[in-house]
């Protein structure tokens, strides 16, 4: 391979040696391989090595993604897609409808309502879990007795399967028999309709998601903290910097690369956090806690006939929104001199 | 972010590329017309609740005694998940059961998408004229029969006799009486009057019918849910909760209702025969005589409750159609229906079974049979089941005070017109 590369470069560059031999033939130009051919010739070995991965990814991600995008331009639903069931063969009768689905979604207040709550949900969840995670990480970063025990305990929410913890929370929130209301009534206070009142239901889902999200923040930030050299703190202390000044000017900048990554990841996850909402409130009461993905799920799995095309269009819109947010975020970071 | 879309798309893709391997071979099972013995496996999805499922499993497996070469695979699928689970399996062409216990409103829905095998002329439809006509009505879609009735039911008012006596009130016959009775009950016993299902649209129907309304007018192709009666119905449920005559929940309604009633925290609830077995297990109902059943409270236009029940349907892609037909015939037979009533107090769909003494003497049957005869038939259209979702949404919004009853009725109507393209 290396030899070939050398030759082709020499030819293409038209080295003095080649000119010296006087081969000024006319068919030199047509013989020069195209860019693609050259790249293939150069890297055929690498390509053949990654081919299986590319094919697998293409099949399991590319194909469904492409199919989903295509569906969003049609009026496909459960009743008009092609299927064969036993002796019944039902042909596909759905049609290409262009941007109709998108027009209908964007022209409907429902989408904007859901988007508003989804943004509020994402921002509050990420902000709270980041703040709490950072506070806990700073506390756990110093040496004290039983540190390992605390660390293990704080990672626990992450280790427990999401549905188990959400169901546990649901029991705690139960208006009639839940622990929270038992405590409140025990203290002589009134009951709270945790999951039955729209405002409280919103607070409840955010609480649970923060609880589920803190361990990830904690671990990532703890790792980041440990990579900040202790000398910086020592020097700052010598110069008489207050704890707050040390936190602001050493800890926060030192965590930048870690925190920018975890915030982005957490934003994407929270934006699409299906299980917490679905298992805790099913989007209720009414549709008060329904975020974009749970609504897309409703379209595709709950209503009848299942509306594949509108659901796919919601999916594409979610993808576009997140891509946009990611791009803007990275741009902002780069402007601030972050290499990530 | 990719996962969301990928899952949606993947599902759609699977549904669309449904392979052709579903039909074809009969898997070495079934019979030919000559009457050779049935063999193979019949997978049966049952949707009965916790208190009922052991009985159903025993009944289903009783089929193996009559057909020793057939293996019945009994699977209990919770009611709340059954519809989606069946659609996933049937649409994806893998994992669907041969026979499923299908809610009356699901039959037209499944049949319209091509998931069910037509049963006309098969052994499954055994002695069809014996079935109650209103039960049989729910099994037909566009002139074909897609299911066989198994159980029929309707909603009624369940009450705790002890609490009502203690409070010195009569069984309320109307919503107005219910409110005064509830106030008495709370004052004298500390219990709440009624548990109102705020999370399940099916429980909205008695209030809607009670005000003289209906979901749609199938004959005239008109949406009627947003008429004045619909507005009044939303107003009634809101008023019951606001006046503290009733408590409600936006989630977990079934469990909360059963627990509250069984433990005596509420004196009344609206429920169907399927709850009887579970109620009897409750602390306050060790003496089953404490359970009283009465017609649902009347609204301003009279008493009305929906006709419900369960049918048995056969999956069109079943590899063992002959055994499945025989299984349906067996499960809907007079003998099995009689046993279901004796063990679970569920109502048979065969007129002949009502003549059996053990059925005729059953307290619950004595009450529920006249109620079922008067129950309101629902529109047996493909969208019948889909009509519930908009009500679920609006009910919760009305009860939490987000939406006014007028708006809620209007929103429900709008959602219906979107769903039913040719309706006014």
TrEMBL record, chain A:
<dbReference type="GO" id="GO:0005886">
    <property type="term" value="C:plasma membrane"/>
</dbReference>
<keyword id="KW-0812">Transmembrane</keyword>
<keyword id="KW-0472">Membrane</keyword>
<keyword id="KW-1003">Cell membrane</keyword>
<feature type="transmembrane region" description="Helical">
    <location>
        <begin position="44"/>
        <end position="65"/>
    </location>
</feature>
<protein>
    <submittedName>
        <fullName>ABC transporter membrane protein</fullName>
    </submittedName>
</protein>
<feature type="region of interest" description="Disordered">
    <location>
        <begin position="1"/>
        <end position="34"/>
    </location>
</feature>
<dbReference type="InterPro" id="IPR035906">
    <property type="entry name" value="MetI-like_sf"/>
</dbReference>
<feature type="transmembrane region" description="Helical">
    <location>
        <begin position="119"/>
        <end position="140"/>
    </location>
</feature>
<feature type="domain" description="ABC transmembrane type-1">
    <location>
        <begin position="115"/>
        <end position="329"/>
    </location>
</feature>
<feature type="transmembrane region" description="Helical">
    <location>
        <begin position="152"/>
        <end position="172"/>
    </location>
</feature>
<feature type="transmembrane region" description="Helical">
    <location>
        <begin position="258"/>
        <end position="280"/>
    </location>
</feature>
<comment type="similarity">
    <text>Belongs to the binding-protein-dependent transport system permease family.</text>
</comment>
<feature type="compositionally biased region" description="Polar residues">
    <location>
        <begin position="1"/>
        <end position="10"/>
    </location>
</feature>
<feature type="transmembrane region" description="Helical">
    <location>
        <begin position="311"/>
        <end position="329"/>
    </location>
</feature>
<dbReference type="InterPro" id="IPR000515">
    <property type="entry name" value="MetI-like"/>
</dbReference>
<keyword id="KW-1133">Transmembrane helix</keyword>
<feature type="transmembrane region" description="Helical">
    <location>
        <begin position="199"/>
        <end position="222"/>
    </location>
</feature>
<keyword id="KW-0813">Transport</keyword>
<dbReference type="GO" id="GO:0055085">
    <property type="term" value="P:transmembrane transport"/>
</dbReference>
<dbReference type="InterPro" id="IPR050809">
    <property type="entry name" value="UgpAE/MalFG_permease"/>
</dbReference>
<dbReference type="Pfam" id="PF00528">
    <property type="entry name" value="BPD_transp_1"/>
</dbReference>
Automatic annotation (TrEMBL), chain B:
<keyword id="KW-0732">Signal</keyword>
<keyword id="KW-0813">Transport</keyword>
<dbReference type="GO" id="GO:0055052">
    <property type="term" value="C:ATP-binding cassette (ABC) transporter complex, substrate-binding subunit-containing"/>
</dbReference>
<protein>
    <submittedName>
        <fullName>Acarbose/maltose binding protein</fullName>
    </submittedName>
</protein>
<dbReference type="GO" id="GO:0015768">
    <property type="term" value="P:maltose transport"/>
</dbReference>
<feature type="signal peptide">
    <location>
        <begin position="1"/>
        <end position="20"/>
    </location>
</feature>
<dbReference type="InterPro" id="IPR006059">
    <property type="entry name" value="SBP"/>
</dbReference>
<dbReference type="Pfam" id="PF01547">
    <property type="entry name" value="SBP_bac_1"/>
</dbReference>
<dbReference type="GO" id="GO:1901982">
    <property type="term" value="F:maltose binding"/>
</dbReference>
<comment type="similarity">
    <text>Belongs to the bacterial solute-binding protein 1 family.</text>
</comment>
<dbReference type="GO" id="GO:0042956">
    <property type="term" value="P:maltodextrin transmembrane transport"/>
</dbReference>
């Amino acid at each position: 391979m290396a030899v070939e590369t050398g030759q082709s470069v020499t030819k293409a560059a038209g080295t003095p040696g080649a000119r010296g031999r006087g081969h000024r033939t006319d068919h030199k130009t047509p013989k020069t391989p195209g860019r693609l051919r050259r790249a293939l010739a150069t890297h055929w070995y690498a390509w053949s090595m990654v081919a299986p991965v590319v094919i697998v990814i293409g099949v399991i991600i590319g194909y469904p993604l492409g199919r989903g995008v295509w569906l969003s331009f049609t009026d496909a639903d459960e009743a008009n897609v092609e299927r064969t069931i036993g002796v019944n063969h039902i042909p596909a009768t759905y049609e290409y409808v262009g941007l109709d689905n998108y027009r209908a979604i964007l022209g409907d207040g429902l989408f904007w309502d859901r988007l508003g709550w989804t943004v509020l949900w994402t921002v509050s969840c990420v902000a709270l879990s980041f703040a709490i995670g950072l506070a806990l990480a700073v506390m756990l970063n110093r040496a004290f007795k039983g540190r390992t025990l605390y660390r293990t305990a704080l990672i626990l929410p992450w280790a427990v399967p999401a549905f188990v913890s959400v169901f546990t929370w649901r029991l705690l929130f139960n208006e009639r028999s839940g622990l929270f209301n038992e405590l409140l009534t025990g203290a002589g206070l009134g009951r709270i309709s945790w999951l039955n009142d729209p405002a409280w239901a919103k607070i409840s889902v955010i609480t649970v998601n923060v609880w589920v999200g803190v361990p990830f923040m904690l671990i990532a930030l703890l790792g980041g903290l440990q990579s900040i050299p202790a000398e910086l703190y020592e020097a700052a202390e010598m110069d008489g910097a207050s704890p707050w000044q040390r936190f602001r000017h050493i800890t926060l900048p030192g965590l930048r690369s870690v925190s920018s990554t975890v915030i982005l990841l957490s934003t994407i996850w929270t934006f699409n956090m299906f299980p917490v909402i679905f298992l805790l409130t099913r989007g209720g009461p009414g549709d008060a806690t329904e975020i974009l993905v749970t609504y897309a799920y409703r379209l595709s799995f709950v209503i009848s006939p299942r509306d594949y095309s509108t659901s796919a269009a919601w999916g594409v819109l979610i993808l576009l929104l997140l891509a946009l947010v990611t791009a803007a975020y990275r741009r902002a970071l780069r402007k601030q001199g972050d290499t990530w | 972010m990719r996962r969301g879309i990928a899952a949606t798309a993947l599902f759609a893709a699977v549904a669309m590329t449904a392979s052709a391997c579903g039909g074809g071979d009969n898997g070495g099972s079934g019979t030919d017309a000559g009457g050779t013995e049935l063999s193979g496996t019949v997978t049966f999805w049952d949707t009965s609740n916790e208190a009922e499922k052991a009985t159903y499993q025993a009944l289903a497996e009783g089929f193996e005694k009559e057909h020793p070469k057939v293996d019945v695979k009994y699977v209990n699928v919770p009611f709340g998940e059954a519809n989606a689970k069946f659609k996933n399996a049937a649409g994806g062409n893998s994992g669907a059961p041969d026979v499923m216990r299908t809610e009356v409103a699901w039959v037209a829905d499944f049949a319209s998408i091509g998931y069910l095998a037509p049963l006309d002329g098969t052994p499954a439809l055994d002695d069809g004229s014996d079935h109650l006509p209103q039960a049989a009505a729910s099994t037909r879609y566009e002139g074909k029969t897609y299911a066989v009735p198994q159980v029929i039911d309707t909603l009624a008012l369940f009450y705790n006799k002890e609490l009502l006596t203690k409070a010195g009130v009569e069984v309320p016959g109307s919503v107005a009486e219910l409110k005064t009775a509830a106030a008495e009950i709370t004052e004298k016993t500390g219990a709440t009057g009624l548990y109102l299902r705020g999370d399940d649209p099916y429980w909205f129907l008695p209030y809607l019918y009670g005000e003289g309304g209906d979901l749609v007018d199938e004959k005239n192709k008109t949406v009627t849910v947003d008429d004045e009666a619909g507005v009044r119905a939303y107003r009634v449920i809101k008023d019951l909760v606001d006046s503290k005559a009733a408590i409600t929940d936006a989630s977990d309604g079934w469990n909360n209702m059963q627990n509250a009633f069984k433990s005596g925290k509420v004196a009344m609830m609206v429920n169907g025969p399927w709850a009887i077995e579970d109620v009897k297990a409750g602390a306050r109902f060790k003496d089953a005589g404490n359970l009283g059943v009465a017609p649902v409270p009347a609204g301003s236009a009279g008493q009305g409750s929906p006709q419900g029940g369960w049918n048995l349907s056969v999956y069109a892609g079943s590899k063992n159609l002959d055994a499945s037909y025989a299984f349906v015939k067996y499960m809907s037979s007079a003998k099995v229906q009689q046993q279901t009533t004796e063990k679970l107090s569920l109502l048979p769909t065969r007129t002949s079974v009502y003549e059996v003494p053990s059925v005729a003497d059953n307290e619950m049957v004595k009450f529920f049979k006249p109620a079922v005869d008067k129950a309101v038939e629902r529109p047996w259209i493909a969208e019948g089941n889909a009509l519930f979702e908009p009500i679920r949404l609006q009910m919760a919004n009305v009860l939490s005070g987000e939406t006014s009853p007028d708006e809620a009725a209007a929103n429900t109507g709008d959602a219906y017109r979107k769903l039913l393209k040719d309706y006014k």
